[in-house]
Amino acid sequence: MPGPGLSVLRGVRRALGATAARVYLTACVLLLGWALVVSSEGSMAVVVPLFATLPASLVLLLVLPEGDMTFLLSLVLGALVNAMIIGWCARVLRRGGSPDTAS
After folding, report:
1. Keywords assigned by UniProt (predicted)?
2. Which of 70, 75, 64, 68 is nearest to 33 (CA)?
3. Cα–Cα distances in Å, from 13 out to 35, 36, 59, 76?
4. Which residue, among 46, 49, 37, has the nearest Cα to 82 in the 3D structure?
5. How remote is the C-alpha of 70 from its chain's centroid?
């Protein structure tokens, strides 16, 4: 019998395996790459990837200490959290319209 850690990892892998989640992650990586190439001193280009990863990245920005690497870490973790939510929603919607009538 697998432990609870294995079932969590299986759920994460299943959520990130959805096509919608992968498209979202690809878009976030492209936006972050564009922002890093275009950004200069005083540029607001890094706001675009931040908006793409809201609300998870904003919560992480408020919790983690301030710094450049913290900003990058919050964007990456925010994108992963949002991709997992997107993958979970895609999986639930794909399952169909047969609601649970056990109540």
Report:
1. Membrane, Transmembrane, Transmembrane helix
2. 75
3. 28, 28, 23, 17
4. 49
5. 16
